[in-house]
Design a protein that fits this description.
The protein is α+β, with helices and mostly antiparallel strands. The protein folds into 2 domains: 172 residues, 2-Layer Sandwich (D-amino Acid Aminotransferase, Chain A, domain 1); 151 residues, Alpha-Beta Barrel (D-amino Acid Aminotransferase, Chain A, domain 2), CATH 3.20.10.10. The chain contains 7 helices and 18 strands. The longest helix is centred in the middle third of the chain and has 16 residues. The chain is globular. The relative contact order is 0.15. Bound molecules: 2-OXO-4-methylpentanoic acid (COI). The site of 2-OXO-4-methylpentanoic acid (COI) has 5 residues, from loops.
Length: 358
Amino acid sequence: MQYNLNIQRIAESNRMNIDFSNLPFGKVFSDHMFVADYDGTEWTNLEIKPLENLSVHPGNLAWHYGQSIFEGMKATKGADGTPLLFRPEMHIERLNASARRMCMPEFPADLFDQVIRTLVHMEKDWIPSEDGSALYIRPLMIAMDEALGVRASLKYKFIVMCLPVGPYYAKPVSLLAETKFVRAVDGGVGEAKTAGNYAASLYPAMLAKQAGFDQIMWLDAKEYKYIQEVGTMNIFFVFKDKIVTPATTGTILKGITRNTFIKLLNAKGYEVEERLISIDEIYEAEKSGELLEVFGSGTAAVVAVVNKISHNGRSIELNQEDYKVAPMLKAHIEGLRNRTIADENGWIVPVNMLESVS
Ligand code: COI
């Protein structure tokens, strides 16, 4: 179905004031945003307009009890300048899975498709062409009821903003395996992309930074033994004869980059195991020379190579100069994203001129 989006354009773009060769992650916003309201029954007031502040009541339920979910996706462009999306259908699927878990309304997939295409087409001059850069797209859904009783909101707002971004991690990351705090428990909300998961990570992450590490490696909440994920990424371990990544059994985010890498690795003949993997297994594999690489995957991070893991006072140092799989995956996904590598899986969605946007 074709929806009627009300489009108001900015009088003068702010793009000329931005230094695209030096883009920090998450600080520069493009000219326009999409906003819609859920009135308890359906999504209404579908609007693309100049980015502006929201006026929100202090009793807003999202602020008090955390009904807030989001996604992170990227637009790049091909040599001819056509904007390209990467597996957008996976993002709306995951957003709606987060919505169900957080007792929020789903957002129609066909409306999402129309909104993202229209907005990205309007913001196409904001897509950076520098290596490792992209237009980061941030869909966000928040509760909008004004009430202090603990309950699901009836009203919601859905927003999409766009940000030109450079690489999330400019250098290899060191990890501290966390032995006191946990990110997610069985039956909890670890699989949802919801604000509280990130809020809960801040204090342990601050302590890890103070101890000299870049990120936390989360372990399971029962035995502090099995690896879950890392900071804002999923994690992969490359052994001599296989590649292992923690299985998504409800406590970790179902990463779209993770899923992409598993498929690419399988297609290239690597054996990838999705299973429980303990921190002890990593230490033993390092001792026996079996462990070759550790890297994180995520939309924002793409591939982040790990150069150190510490756990209970013992450490592993890894030399990223020897890495082969992580740089291969990075080059492959970037090649897909700028169309210098053939897209055999139909993951790239070109955004052409829409009739509704002239
Ligand atoms: C992403 O990888 O897109 C994320 O959402 C991670 C982060 C910036 C919160």
